[in-house]
Amino acid sequence: MYEEIVRDYLQTSAEAAGELREKTESISQAARIIIDTYRDSGKVIIFGNGGSAADSQHFATELVARFRKARAPLNAVALTTNSSMLTAIGNDSGFKYIFKRQLEAVARKGDTAVAIS
């Protein structure tokens, strides 16, 4: 029973990886936008709901801390880390504004926002 679940999960993962090959151009374009953001001294602002909130935090951490090798930190922030801010904005303005309000506060010309869903 569990072997079948694992086999199905791995098959689904393999199929998803195969589908990513068809997205090479889009992925490369997104990478270029992020590289250009850093070349122009901007920052990357990342956000998402639920599990994507955790993904956004992980993404920001890899940019700031390190990824694969030691290097200078890259300016990145996840908008999902401040529970007081998230709940205050949600309570005062409505849940649909939790990222909009934060972007208005921290985003500047030349920054790149990445929404994960």
Compute the separation of the termini in Å.
31 Å
How many β-strand runs?
Answer: 3
Class from secondary-structure proportions: mainly alpha
* Tally of contiguous helical segments: 5
Outline the structure in words.
It is globular and about 50 Å long. Helix content is 59%, strand content 11%. The chain has a 3-stranded parallel β-sheet, covered by helices on one side. The mean pLDDT is 95. By secondary structure, it is mainly alpha-helical.
Give a quick rundown of the structure.
With 117 residues, the chain is mostly helical. It contains five helices and three strands; from the N terminus they run H-H-E-H-E-H-H-E.
SSE arrangement:
Blueprint: H1 2-21, H2 24-39, E1 44-48, H3 51-64, E2 76-78, H4 83-92, H5 98-106, E3 112-116
Parallel strand pairs: 1-2, 1-3
Task: Give the key terms.
mainly alpha; three-stranded parallel β-sheet; globular; 59% helix; 3 strands; 11% strand; 117 residues
